[in-house]
Amino acid sequence: MTDTVSFGYEDVAPGEKTRRVGDVFRNVAARYDLMNDAMSGGMHRLWKDRFVRRVKPREGEQILDMAGGTGDIAFRMARHGAAITVADINGAMLEVGMERAAKRGIDGLVWTEANAETLQFPDRFFDAYTIAFGIRNVTDIPAALKEAHRVLKRGGRFYCLEFSTTLWPGFADVYDAYSHRLVPKLGKLLANDEDSYRYLIESIRRFPDMETFKGMIGDAGFTQTRVEPVLGGLVAIHSGWKI
């Protein structure tokens, strides 16, 4: 862990990032779908469907959905009969997820407050570990990846869905203008919270590119690592296996 880490375009102490990210997600928890719609033009639902198809959850499996407080990924995976533990460092996000599950009549999920960097679960416990749009908000990403590796069984699989940097000429400039200029203003208009939305866009720009992050997953001990770009890399599905 370095002396400073990125919080959007700022460099701050690790503890300060953890605190400020917590504030951001407490602020946006009740408007989570609105946040994702603003950042993705509503396409996040299709990306999450695609992500779960790659994970291939199966009946009887134990799956940890990290940073999954609002339940978007867990609800999709639970349809396949897997036993899902939804973990999030932010209690406000978990509260939203539990309320949504109750409204939809979805039961059987385990909800727990947990820090991705210091998980309380035993070694070799889960068949799969998923994290969607959460890894870039972790203070110590290498520590979180090592913890993901630790809690997976041999033969377990790691899947991460995250914003990245599109390589499509032209489209990158259009999205950059949209995200930096319009998304914070939408946050102000729709949620009265411009600063949180600005941080979320800036955090994407500071996140490692696809190949760099793929290397970080390998450094954590995973093998057969791969990356699947979506929209030229605007979003990427990263994966790896524990053997």
UniProtKB/TrEMBL annotation:
Top-rank taxon: Bacteria
Alphabetically ordered keywords of this record: Menaquinone biosynthesis, Methyltransferase, S-adenosyl-L-methionine, Transferase, Ubiquinone biosynthesis
GO molecular function, one term: methyltransferase activity
Biological role stated in the UniProt entry: Methyltransferase required for the conversion of demethylmenaquinol (DMKH2) to menaquinol (MKH2) and the conversion of 2-polyprenyl-6-methoxy-1,4-benzoquinol (DDMQH2) to 2-polyprenyl-3-methyl-6-methoxy-1,4-benzoquinol (DMQH2).
One of the GO BP terms on file: methylation
Stated family: Belongs to the class I-like SAM-binding methyltransferase superfamily. MenG/UbiE family.
Protein name from the UniProt record: Ubiquinone/menaquinone biosynthesis C-methyltransferase UbiE
Keyword Transferase appears in the UniProt entry: yes
Residues reported in the UniProt entry to bind S-adenosyl-L-methionine: T70, D88, N115, A116
Keyword Transferase: yes
